[in-house]
Design goal:
The complex is a heterodimer. Helix content of chain A is 39%, strand content 16%. By secondary structure, chain A is of the alpha/beta class. In chain A, helix 1 links the parallel strand 1 and strand 2. Classes of the chains: A alpha/beta, B alpha/beta.
Chain lengths: 142, 372
């Protein structure tokens, strides 16, 4: 618990082939990272529809992480390129509609990058602590 | 090829019907999709095969019950039967092009027949006096900068009133409509239209420059209005008190905006399925988590999701605003948000059917900072 009792809640959508395995490696390698993340495994970052991210944000998640294979490494060849465009569009739309786009993070993490996964969660958690709790936590009229 | 269509006895509509009849009787077209006036006075898109019935066609009436790209899509996808001439407004044409990219429509069997549009009225306002309102295109073309009662919000700020990439263009702006107007036709039709009608090349040049000037002024005026609307709606979206939630506070999630949207075609749309028929315990849990739960739930999710799914292709026809029972500025929000995200991808919806949709296309070396 931080001093004001605020602990960010991160919802992470991880691709089955790279980032999920990277997260697994972080675990089996016993790398320490903040316990603020709730992982949801999908087959591909390209399978992350914007509605999943939006639902998490509107329900009060403080941050959403989308994890996929590095460019060129997608198991389905081009899913991560499409995920990238979707996140770019989503961030612009969030900005246009008055939401904080800093709460959505896309990160390429390969199956061998357990440390990078742990670092990502550590950094993102620290960033979200700076940002403070999502206004959506108490915003019931959405 | 250009032809001058003379108007007799000041009856412009009759001259327009004459053009349509000649097109339907040509070898180019088997059926014409055109706004027709029903015996009760309503205007509705209609598929016409009998040229004799075209005396009821009325593409000039300022009525806009449905974006006809939706219905043209039904008739042209899969295996189309017959060649259709589609008489449409600019925003309908642009929606059609987006549907082609979405693989929900096909242009192979379609001849696009564009009619300049000076604006349309809200359907209830139109229906109050259908017979009288059918003639009001005259006033709309004479004063396209006006704000007649009942004018649709999207038309008031429409900066694309003409669509010149169509196969046939009925050029109404810049002409003295009591005398005649110019029609642009494919060369394959040239023969049937006679040299006599297109011979008035001198007056054609004059009409063209008038048209260009009229359109330039109109587009400048409308673009100015649009800019003001964008700035107003963006201010409200970023207002701490109002914001997106405030703008859509009165939304009842009736889905009307989605139903009439020409871009929202998905038959498997999650908002049409049982996804939001939550279990009772779910409502209780949400209410407990935030202390309260707005009902009907998920209104903001609905609008944000729709923005993400279709705003890149939004052509600004404004049907969403027209049908909103809560009178919310749906179209204004979608246009403003769409304008921003379209510029991110340098994308202009509605013009090039060969172009890929921004969320389908990609390049390997773009936005390389994202994900690193």
């Amino acid at each position: 618990m931080s001093e004001n009792g605020y602990e960010p809640r991160i919802v992470a959508f991880l691709c089955n082939w790279c980032t999920y395995v990277g997260a697994d490696l972080a675990g089996t390698s016993r790398i320490q990272y903040p316990p603020n993340v709730r992982v949801i495994r999908l087959m591909c970052s390209g399978a992350v529809d914007q509605v999943y991210i939006l639902k998490a944000l509107l329900d009060g998640a403080d941050g959403v992480l989308v994890g996929g294979c590095h460019p060129g490494d997608c198991h389905y060849l081009e899913g991560n390129y499409k995920a990238r465009r979707r996140v770019v569009a989503l961030n612009d739309i969030l900005e246009s509609t008055g939401f904080e786009q800093e709460r959505v993070l896309l990160r390429w993490i390969s199956a061998s990058e357990g440390q990078r996964f742990a670092d990502t969660i550590t950094e993102f958690t620290a960033r979200l602590k700076e940002l403070g709790p999502s206004p959506m936590r108490r915003q019931w009229a959405v | 090829m250009r032809a001058f269509i003379p108007v007799e006895d000041g009856n412009t509509l009759k001259a327009v019907q004459g053009v349509l009849r000649r097109l339907l009787e040509s070898d180019l077209i088997d059926a014409l999709m055109v706004p027709m006036r029903t015996p009760a006075g309503a205007i509705t898109p209609t598929l016409v095969t009998d040229p004799a019935l075209l005396d009821q066609a009325d593409p000039l009436a300022p009525a806009f019950p449905v974006n006809s790209a939706r219905v043209l899509g039904w008739m042209t996808q899969r295996e189309p039967r017959g060649r259709i001439g589609a008489v449409m407004r600019s925003c309908e044409m642009r929606a059609m092009i987006e549907l082609v990219k979405l693989k929900q429509a096909c242009l192979d069997c379609v001849t696009l027949i564009s009619v300049d549009c000076a604006g349309t009225l809200q359907t209830p306002a139109y229906q109050e006096n259908a017979a009288g309102n059918a003639e009001r295109w005259q006033e709309l073309f004479a004063q396209p900068d006006g704000q007649p009662a009942g004018l649709r919000d999207a038309c008031w700020m429409c900066e694309k009133p003409v669509y010149e990439k169509a196969d046939v263009v009925l050029e109404l702006f810049g002409s003295d409509l009591s005398q005649g107007f110019q029609v642009v036709l494919p060369d394959s039709l040239a023969e049937g239209w006679g040299a006599g009608e297109s011979s008035a090349s001198h007056s054609a040049d004059g009409a063209n420059s008038t048209r260009a000037r009229v359109l330039e002024e109109l587009v400048a005026l409308r673009s100015g209005r649009l800019k003001e609307v964008f700035s107003e709606i963006r201010g409200r979206l970023h207002d701490d008190q109002e914001g997106m939630a405030g703008i859509f506070a009165a939304c009842i999630r009736c889905h009307n905006c989605m139903t009439v949207c020409p871009i929202c075609y998905c038959k498997t749309c999650l908002f049409k399925g049982p996804v939001f028929d939550h279990e009772p315990i779910q409502f209780m849990q949400w209410a407990e988590r935030k202390g309260a739960l707005r009902l009907p739930s998920d209104t903001m999710l609905f609008h944000l999701t729709r923005l993400n799914h279709m705003a890149l292709s939004c052509v600004g026809c404004g049907m969403c605003t027209s049908v909103c029972p809560a009178d919310l500025p749906v179209g204004r929000v979608f246009r403003a948000v769409g304008d921003s995200v379209q510029s991110v991808f340098d994308y202009q919806p509605g013009y090039n059917p060969e172009e890929m949709l921004p969320l389908v296309a990609f390049q390997e070396d773009e936005w390389q900072e994202v994900g690193q």
